[in-house]
Amino acid sequence: MNRKVAIIGAGNVGASTGLYLAERALADVVLIDIVEGMPQGKALDMIQTTPLWHKGARIEGANDLAAVKGADVIVMTAGLPRKPGMSRSDLLKVNADIVRPVAEAVKQHAPGAFVVVITNPLDVMTWLFWKVSGFPKHRVMGMAGMLDSARMRAFIALELGLSPTDVQAMVLGGHGDSMVPLPRYTTVGGITVSQLVPADRLAAISDRTRNAGAEIVKLLKTGSAYYSPAMCAVEMVEAILTDQKRLVPCSVMVSGEYGMKDLFVGVPIVLGGKGIEKIVQLDLAPEELAALQKSGKEVADMIAELGG
Fold it and tell me: What per-residue confidence (pLDDT) applies to 57?
């Protein structure tokens, strides 16, 4: 039996995720969206590219959430995107109303699935999906840390004129303005980035990383980022489906790690065939730990606002 990934929301993020997944031949893909004809049309368009891939997987579109049945992984992308001047917390209640019925449907039709959440505000929506679904915490995770770290890697590569593949970065905390880039745990070809980039430029890169999503929203004017979030979700799905044991930052439930508990926040994890297999405890400096806990408190405050 082929593996199956169900993508909730066939907008820009969802459709891009589906295309990347199918092109890599990682799994059969079903795009699910409430807009009649839209997921079917996008799936049909993708199907018509498959003769040119030399490999690939089946793609279909659906409007009924029952189509998640049999999925190994659910990617939750549905939700209102940010608009210029809009914070992630502004999206809280409207997107919570979208996440709840999806989590209920996944609980009913795909009770053994892993879940990757992209919907903003990401950490809170991941907590909500976990809460409503009742899934064990190792099977529900948010994409944030992967994206924030990828953005930092890209900005460092641009600064140095080097290949982004040689840059490794670590960004922790909530997926928002309070995220915590960690230059001490960032390397280029194994060399600590502080040896290659002056402190003032590193600080500027860290600030740009925190505001990377808003920078794209401002430029697009009518939407938000989708290629990079989609690719990060695909990397997470691949790590699960192929049991890669990757050490990456993701938004997961903490139970005392880093002095936080009962919330989802970005921390380093080992991601593999069993989902979240381990939370890795980094030796953080006092100011780094304080910044991470401050970011976690912002997430906790929004969870409390939802009645968590």
Answer: 81
